Amino acid sequence: MNETKQSHVMATYNRTALRFERGEGAWLITDDGDRYLDFGSGVAVNVLGHAHPKLVATLKAQAEKLWHVSNLYTIPEQEALADALCAHSFAERVFFCNSGAEAAEGMIKVMRKYHAVNGRPEKVTLISFAGAFHGRTLAALAAAGNQAYLEGFGPPPAGFVQCPAFDIGQLEALIDDTTAGILIEPVQGEGGVRDTGTGFLRDLRTLCDKHDILLGFDEVQCGIGRTGKLFAHEWAEVIPDVMAIAKGIGGGFPLGAFLTSEKLGAAMQAGTHGSTYGGNPLATAVGAAVLETVGQPAFLEHVQDVSSFFRQQLAQVIDENNDIFTELRGLGLLIGLKCTPLNSDVVAALRHHHLLSVGAGENTLRLLPPLNVTREEVAVAIAALQAACVDLRAAKDKA
Ligand SMILES: *Cc1c(COP(=O)(O)O)cnc(C)c1O
Fold it and tell me: Between 3.40.640.10, 3.40.50.2020, 1.20.58.220, 3.40.30.10, what CATH number should domain 66-294 receive?
């Protein structure tokens, strides 16, 4: 483990030396046999944990039949997943891709194309929000407007405007004749686990209807059961015109999609968009198995039940350790804890106690357990948080 061999992998991530060999449910096991409770879930991806028997069986069965044919042919697995996604949502049309950034980018494209085919090609501007994250392609970065991520990569694509706060007044002032629509994560993930609130989402829908512009939800992180509803916007009972999904839908197999109403879907005719891999048989077979499980009412009830248990326990942890944690954020199992010490130090302290977590913006710690996590596993995580608080306090007292 201590070898100092030069890595040929580009150094875009600050990686720890931990190497995992296999996983079982919410647990990851290193090549030395050490067990870690995985409350990062590969950044909100492994919604059914690791090596879920149904997903393993689905992937194996599909692997023995057919992996890839391209979108020149009808793909029954893709048709079936599109049917299921539409049956579970507002959507009538689905385009499959392979990642969240591609899904967000597709969402941007369809919002512009809709106006163009309806005789309003000047409507190209997308309004997004401070703290947003939509992925790492140039358009997704321009949409999120995080200068640190754009630095050094040349001129960002034009046609993006940022609203500094979740404030309807400030937002409406940004709308003009060039506005195509609004892009928002119903619950921001990377930006610091910030819930935009059901009232704000409803006001957004009203505003979009008033100005005849489109509403796009990026549910790449907060969708697929993460908040206790299949899609986070269901809490607000608000319907978007388009939605991007990825992360959880593949359960670990790379898969993304954007879903639209009929009127937006109709704007995307043959040749307007494409993806070689997008929606291939392996990915969509696994996606259908994920949705079949996560889409069950009893499964979503479990997410709501275990998340309210977890949140009660976390409120107590904050109460007893208000020098370390100051605020509980998010919705369901998209959990944020605002930290007083550096969040990276908190992630390291938790890792020392074999609990895996992820940092987020605004010095927040993200806890993203698999959605089938048990109360017993939550109790293990709470004990690790308590132990890490003792360590962090001792480190601070020594400094
Ligand atoms: C992770 C994320 C993305 C980007 O997904 P990738 O698969 O990394 O491209 C986009 N939007 C949101 C809200 C995300 O959390």
Answer: 3.40.640.10
Q: What is the pTM of this model?
A: 0.97
Per CATH, the architecture of 20-52+297-398 is what? Answer: Alpha-Beta Complex (3.90)
What distance in angstroms lies between residue 44's CA and the mean position of ligand 1's atoms?
10
230-259 pLDDT tens trace: 999 999 999 999 999 999 999 999 999 999
pLDDT tens digits for 3-26? 567 899 999 999 999 999 999 999
Residue 175 and residue 177: Cα distance in Å, rounded?
7
Name 76's Cβ contacts closer than 8 Å, sequence gap at least 6: none
Ligand 1 within 6 A of 203 CB? no
- Ligand 1 midpoint to CA 282 (Å): 21
Supply the residue whose CA is at minimum distance from atom 15 of ligand 1.
221
